[in-house]
Amino acid sequence: MSTNTSDFRRVTTKSLKVMKEKKIKIAALTAYDYLFAKLVDKAGIDLILVGDSLGNVFQGNETTLPVTIEEMIYHTKAVMRGITRSMVICDMPFMSYQTNPDDAFKNAGRIMKETNAGGVKVEGGEYIAETIYKITRNGIPVMGHVGLMPQSIHQYGSYKARGVDDKEADQIIQDAIAVEQAGAFAIVLEKIPAKLAKTISEKISIPTIGIGAGPYCDGQILVLHDMLGLNEDFKPRFVRKYLNLAKEIDNAIKQYVADIKKSDFPNENESY
Ligand code: KIV
């Protein structure tokens, strides 16, 4: 069985479906700008999410709620310029789809028209199914998102794992089924027990993409800045740090400052 995801020239909803069927794991990351998107795409990531987590990571907000549709479009356009193979999904920000299915469809359509992304993502389960149906029936691929939904943080009161008791776990299963039935092509499972994510991944035929949801999902996603170790203050156990880039950057900038102070930079070769 091939596990070479570069078999897919341009990743689409169809290739993600085939990957689930062939049990080829889907590798996903976030990106918010051109240069990072270019690196992420080149390294073989199947799906890039322009997440509204940019509200935290890029803008420094406490929650994702202040992010606007204009900002999502701006970042998605930059990401699109950097990619050749990855599928790019644009998160729909808070209040761009919750009001009613018609507003949601108009905003999803605007995102697709202005960014050329491959689809949109919305948070929510059964209660958002009609909205997902409206968008997908009109030809726009939708990715769902259940479990911990950061746009509902004020209702939860904390970022702790969801679905740890049976009642909430059953609701999350129902939500994932409703999202699939409404026409979503994939679904993010965020911060739920691994066993629950396994049950959902076996019950539904669309790919599950986990973040803090254990190893049994059909794919995994992390926030790029977290896995690169750029955010020193953020250390949840589901993030594996592949680099300590914050430290590397600190060393580089300190060296730059020192070089300027001792008149070592620029040297003759670096001057005209
Ligand atoms: O906004 C985001 O980056 C996300 C991922 C964490 C899945 O929704």
Features:
272 residues; alpha/beta; 8-stranded parallel beta barrel; 11 helices; 13% strand; globular; binds 3-methyl-2-oxobutanoic acid
Short synopsis of the structure:
This protein is α/β, with parallel strands linked by helices. It has eleven helices and eight strands.
Strand content: 5-15%
Helical content band: 40-55%
Distance between the termini: 56 Å
Biggest sheet, in brief? 8 strands, parallel, barrel
Number of helices: 11
Shape estimate: globular
Q: What is the SS-derived class?
A: alpha/beta
**What is the element string, with H for helices and E for strands?**
HEHEHHEHEHEHHEHEEHH
Low-confidence stretches: none
* Total E-strand runs: 8
Sheet with most strands: strand arrangement: 1-2-3-4-5-6-7-8
Average pLDDT number: 96
From the alpha-carbon coordinates, what is the Rg to the nearest angstrom? 20 Å
The set of bound ligands, ions and cofactors reads: 3-methyl-2-oxobutanoic acid
